[in-house]
């Protein structure tokens, strides 16, 4: 039995995002393309023989019980009736409210890890259904392959994409997803399109105009990126990104960039799943 291991909890990008309607419950129907990055947080998990769930350190501004890691662990413990517990150490590098899915990724990594640590036998579909209760973005991180997504982001069709190098700018502002989705000026009537990998190159993000109007720092970052190519917003922001010819090209741009950011490579298989495959290989 594996009793301690570490897993990556990667960022995602929305390579395009269309909002095609609003449901009765207030959630929006989307069409988006998700790709993972080889950049993100790391979580260390250690098995406990009591039922306690410990997480450290706490995140500034996020009460312990609201942390999606704690919520995910408690949810799985309750659903499975498992009597074990866990110590979790979080190494956070992803900015919060950046549209790169850090909280959802942390929740998904926790569900995937505890399924192994507690020797449970949930399928990915079952874990994704549990994860959806925590956030619309959790299922993509559970499924772990780049995808075309519809519904609220949980109806996933795997998609092979070029594993492009990206420059990601992280403007110094935290954006609430709820704030953007409740804005009266948000475009929410885009015509649905058919699954098209070509959208990954040219697709737009329907949140862009509202986000730029509310957050000038995002507008500034996009203007800067667009000197060099087709800069885009991910999710509801605040991060913006540019597909580059190579990692070196992305690093050269980061070097002259007046804003904070990072360089990463797109991944069609989530780094969490890549690491889990190694853990199960080494333990068998
Ligand atoms: C917009 C996207 C695109 O990937 O990413 P982010 O910018 O948050 O990373 C996601 O759909 C976000 O997913 P997630 O961050 O898990 O959202 P949730 O916690 O479920 O929802 C936060 C709030 O956003 C609104 N919301 C979210 C998703 C959706 N399809 N329609 C919505 O209207 C709802 O008002 C909800 O109360
Ligand atoms: N483990 C966590 N990591 C990040 N954010 C979390 C976490 N748990 C709860 N949150 C809350 O979720 C919000 C959204 O976080 P995040 O997923 O990083 O951004 P986004 O939805 O913009 O991609 C944060 O602002 C924070 O209040």
TrEMBL record:
GO biological process: isopentenyl diphosphate biosynthetic process, methylerythritol 4-phosphate pathway; terpenoid biosynthetic process
The EC number(s) this enzyme carries: 2.7.1.148
Catalytic activity field: 4-CDP-2-C-methyl-D-erythritol + ATP = 4-CDP-2-C-methyl-D-erythritol 2-phosphate + ADP + H(+)
Pathway the protein contributes to: Isoprenoid biosynthesis; isopentenyl diphosphate biosynthesis via DXP pathway; isopentenyl diphosphate from 1-deoxy-D-xylulose 5-phosphate: step 3/6
Protein name: 4-diphosphocytidyl-2-C-methyl-D-erythritol kinase
Originating species: Agitococcus lubricus
Amino-acid positions noted as binding ATP in the UniProt annotation, renumbered to this chain: 95-105
A GO molecular function held by the record: 4-(cytidine 5'-diphospho)-2-C-methyl-D-erythritol kinase activity
Gene: ispE
Biological function: Catalyzes the phosphorylation of the position 2 hydroxy group of 4-diphosphocytidyl-2C-methyl-D-erythritol.
Domain GHMP kinase N-terminal span(s) in chain numbering: 67-144
Family: Belongs to the GHMP kinase family. IspE subfamily.
EC class name: transferase
Domain of life: Bacteria
Residue ranges of domain GHMP kinase C-terminal in the record: 198-253
HAMAP family for the chain: IspE (MF_00061)
Residues annotated as catalytic: 12, 137
Keywords: ATP-binding, Isoprene biosynthesis, Kinase, Nucleotide-binding, Transferase
One Pfam family it belongs to: GHMP_kinases_C
SUPFAM superfamilies: GHMP Kinase, C-terminal domain, Ribosomal protein S5 domain 2-like
């Amino acid at each position: 039995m594996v009793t301690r291991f570490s897993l990556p909890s990667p960022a995602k990008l929305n390579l395009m995002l269309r909002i095609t309607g609003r449901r009765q419950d207030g959630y929006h129907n989307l069409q988006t393309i998700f790709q993972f990055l080889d950049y993100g947080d790391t979580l260390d998990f250690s098995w406990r023989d009591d039922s306690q769930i410990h997480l450290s350190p706490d995140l500034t501004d996020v009460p312990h019980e609201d942390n999606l890691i704690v919520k995910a662990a408690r949810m799985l413990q309750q659903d499975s009736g498992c009597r074990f517990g866990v110590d979790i150490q979080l190494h956070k590098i992803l900015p919060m409210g950046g549209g790169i899915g850090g909280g959802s990724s942390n929740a998904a990594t926790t569900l995937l890890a505890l399924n192994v640590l507690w020797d449970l036998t949930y399928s990915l579909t079952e874990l994704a259904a549990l994860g959806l209760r925590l956030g619309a973005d959790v299922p993509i991180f559970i499924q772990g392959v780049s995808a075309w997504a519809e519904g609220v982001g949980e109806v996933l069709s795997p998609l092979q994409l070029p594993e492009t190098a990206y420059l990601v700018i992280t403007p110094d502002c935290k954006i609430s997803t709820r704030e953007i989705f409740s804005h009266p000026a948000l475009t929410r009537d885009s015509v649905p399109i058919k699954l098209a990998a070509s959208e990954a190159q040219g697709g737009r993000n329907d949140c862009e105009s509202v986000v730029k109007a509310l957050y000038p720092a995002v507008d500034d970052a996009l203007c800067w990126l667009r000197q060099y190519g087709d800069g885009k917003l991910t999710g509801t922001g605040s991060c913006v990104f540019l597909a580059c010819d190579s990692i070196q090209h992305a690093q050269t741009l980061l070097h002259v960039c007046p804003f904070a950011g990072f360089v990463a490579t797109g991944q069609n298989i989530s780094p969490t799943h890549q690491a889990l495959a190694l853990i199960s290989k080494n333990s068998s």
